[in-house]
Design the sequence.
């Protein structure tokens, strides 16, 4: 499969329930309303009941006096995901963040976890233990990283656009984003659209969010974010339309 073809993973009943509950305000619905809301997405009654039982036992949902509500842990995870999809930026003055890993003696699992954390902060590894990105994001490094890394401001000698192209596969990201825009435009039915937009979220989390001067022409990041924001509104409207007035 070409590298720019997005992966569309079939959504589980759990994913459908969580996505739709998060479209409700507040994120809580009676069981009978949930059944109506998930039906167009191919989740039947017995499948829904089994999913609700498992999700409640796992702490993903909690029972209330009127129905089911998203648990605090998943609400916090969704908040972090929303921040990743819509990061806050500032004007770029040419400075770069540089994070140097200083801790030693860590095992493979700890090193892999740290790489995941730094990648999630939209840093890219220049060489082993040295991570960079333009200093245009309004976000601090998590305090729990303080014992293992040192954070600096730098001005690399290499031209900024050349360095960015070395650190991130920008053309590949852009090609996948354009493919996703085509897929969401052509996705069949509610379940197909939800599946396609789940892939959009995964791809937006991997957007390096670089300053404009460092991006290739016709960068599709803003268009993909706008499409996702529109879908979030669409999903909330669908939930609202299928919920009985209280």
Sequence:
């Amino acid at each position: 499969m070409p590298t720019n073809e997005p992966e569309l993973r079939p959504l589980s009943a759990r994913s459908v329930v969580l996505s739709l509950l998060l479209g409700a305000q507040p994120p809580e619905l009676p069981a009978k309303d949930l059944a109506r809301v998930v039906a167009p997405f191919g989740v039947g009654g017995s499948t829904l009941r089994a999913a609700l039982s498992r999700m409640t036992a796992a702490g993903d949902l909690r029972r209330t006096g009127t129905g089911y509500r998203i648990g605090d842990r998943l609400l916090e995870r969704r908040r972090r995901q929303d921040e990743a999809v819509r990061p806050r930026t500032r004007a770029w003055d040419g400075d770069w963040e540089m994070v140097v890993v200083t801790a030693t003696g860590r095992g493979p699992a700890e090193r892999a976890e740290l790489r995941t954390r730094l990648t999630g902060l939209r840093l890219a590894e220049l060489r082993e233990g040295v991570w960079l990105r333009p200093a245009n994001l309004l976000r601090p490094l998590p305090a729990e990283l303080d014992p293992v890394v040192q954070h600096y401001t730098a001005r690399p000698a290499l031209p900024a656009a050349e360095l960015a192209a070395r650190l991130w596969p920008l053309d590949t990201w852009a090609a996948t984003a354009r493919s996703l825009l085509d897929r969401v435009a052509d996705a069949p039915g509610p379940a197909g659209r939800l599946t396609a937009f789940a892939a959009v979220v995964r791809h937006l989390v991997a957007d390096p969010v670089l300053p404009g001067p460092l991006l290739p022409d016709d960068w599709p990041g803003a268009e993909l974010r706008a499409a996702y924001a529109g879908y979030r509104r669409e999903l909330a409207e669908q939930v609202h339309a299928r919920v009985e007035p209280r």
Q: What stands out?
A: The domain at 96-154 is CATH 3.30.70.2650 (Alpha-Beta Plaits). The chain has nine helices and seven strands. The first helix runs from residue 13 to 21.
